[in-house]
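Why do we care about 3D structure at all? Because function follows from shape, and shape follows, mostly, from sequence. That is the central idea of this module. The next example makes it concrete: a single protein chain, its amino acid sequence, and then its structure expressed as tokens.
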Amino acid sequence: MRLREKNVFLTEADSSAGRAIFRRLAAEGASFILNSASNGAAIREELDRIRASGCKVMVVNLDLCSRDDVDRMLETASREIGEVDILVHNNDLTEPGTIEHGSEDWFRRLIHYNAKSAFICTQAVGGRMAGRRRGKIVFVSSIHAEKPTGSSFPYSASKGAVKMLTREAALRLGRSGVSVNSIEFGPVEGDDERFRSDLSLLYEHYRYKVPNAVLGTHDDLAETVLFLASDDSRYINGADIRVDGGFLMHYLDGKMKRTAE
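And the structure:
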């Protein structure tokens, strides 16, 4: 069990990605602080299973852009579960809109949810980790830190901000034994609708733009999170690991590997 006696703070537990991550990490013995907008209602079955396996779980519903709220939670958690050993920031909100017509509130909402929350959590959790001279921070980001969506520029901007936060935090916190890395996650089922664009053709026939014509899943993401959260990644710091099956290397549609429908 690679994460036995390790405490994980997961910032978005209710999503498909969040559920896959904490299921996988629980199988390796981790205990959890799970930030859940539903106060645990959306993940009740998963919570029952991991508690039955002996994992400790604390469910919270925090404003991750409030340093005071995060600090109070960490103090409570330190008494009830213990200090956070692993921070997994997986906030991932996108909403369609354009540069020409998008509102300031729309821009602020996505930047705050995806990027400001990453900064606040890194500052609060990373500071405590640095004091103990150990810890792991994993940002679940997106290939759209590199490639525009054509449908939601604040989403891409927020993921680009997390990319640079990874490097800045790795440089500073790495001096205190804390590693900071990000995962640039690629397409899964449904992303053609999520990133539907009247400008970009990136997601047209997107399955076949993966060289092997097989889309990834959130379980693939969870395996990468586990690797970065464990001692297996001891010498990795400040890295952006792309998990997209080669999607962003796509070159010519005429050369796609098409499978029988």
